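[Meeting: bench + compute handoff]

Bench side (C.D.) handed over the final construct sequence. Compute side (W.E.) agreed to return the predicted structure before the next meeting so the bench team could plan truncations. Sequence as handed over:
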Amino acid sequence: MSTENKGFFQLIGSFKGTFWLASAMELFERWAWYGFFAVFALYLTGSTDEGALGFTHIEKGQIMGLITALLYFMPIFTGIIADKIGYKLSLIIAFVMLGGGYYMMGQVDTVPSMFMVFLFTAIGAAIFKPVASAIVTKSTNDENSTLGFGLFYMMVNIGGFIGPAMSSNLRTEYGWNLIFIQATIVILINLLIVLVFFKEPEREVQKKETFSEAVTDAFKKIWEAVSDKRLMILLIIMVGFWTMFNQLFYTLPTFIEDWIDTHALHNSIADISPWLASLMSGGGNSVNPEMLINIDAGFIVLFQIIVSYFVMKMRHVSAMIAGFIVAAIGIGLTFYFHNGMYTILGIMIFAIGEMMSGPTLSSFIAIISPKGKEALYQGTYFLPVAAGNFFTTFISGNLYQAWSDKLSLLQTEMKSKGINMPEIGEGFSKNDYFKMASEKLNMTQNEMTQMVWDTYNPNKIWYVIVGIGIVAILALVVYDNMVVKPKERKLKKDNNSLIEH
């Protein structure tokens, strides 16, 4: 029976049990990951009197950017290890590392210790990533693979939505430590699933080779793929997209915390729906930044199928260009204004751009892949993701610290006015500094924030973030006109010649 003759529920019933186990594990793993990652920037840079760590934005950028870049690069090695030791053992190792790492992240409070614990956790995530995808691949066939990966991607976004929503409530009600305990418990559920239900799927017999030979072979294959200029140029362009995209999780939460009056936003939402206002504030009187960021995942869960339906009618590169433009407009709105409604509107617009461009890239890579090298070309997808995280280190860290960090700008302002202030340290937190500064300036904290905003224009960081997007858009347009369209015209001409003969 062909796929065209099979109904939706027949296709659903055709999936193996291992597919549903992998999908469930993906949901829980993303729940745990985004449950902490959506608030990680706030935890690292928040005031110590609220239980956060009080790190600088440069330290935050280094911890989040460098390690996450490594996370997306490491599957080259961890995938090889999984093929050698088996999927079940790989999953057990991954979940033990993730569970232990999440718990320890809530216990350490120095930059070196957090860097090392997060690195340990990221290695666990890097072990899980290729195994989950491989299980789905082996659990589907030509008939149901499109639907299977669609469902799997939906699980990613459901987990990515639930995690931050739960964490927002937990940190408001019970404090930061519960977020990491939540992530640990969720990962332990995955460990239980593996130990009780998961059976090792059949794997191809691997040729006899050492680990170093396997790694060398993997790098040779990647080099073979990126030697294709069409692919290499596309991947370089995508670095710009991912650098822009990452600002949603690295930079925007702290920008909202610093500059957006979420008390006013909470009251505006409460006028329409008290229940929604309570949900987005975790029961408090201001909207939590992570709940605003979470609009992105929620939008994707609700509208990805609809957006994909319309994008299917477009050329792949045209859809990517349009998606880049929409995403750049959205991210620009979130940083240009310090008004919560524009933040919400910007995130919604950005989500539409992400839905248009993200899945389309994978599909386009599949189209330009030579016959028999589809998996090899798809394996390069995470290279620009890794590079984007690396470059985000400097935007979210060094640049934000210099241009947009409320504390740094206020410290500069106090010095320019000749007002002496204590150094932030033990017994004197960031919040204490803001309170004392507002008293010495004879202003409310809202008035002080507005004064710093008007004086230093911290929203100018949007020039860099959107500028990166614009460069990527222009590069993609040039790529389309110089590489893709000439090839399309040649193929059309060749096909017409065949028809004529």
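W.E. noted at the follow-up: The longest helix spans residues 461-500. C.D. will use this when planning the next construct.
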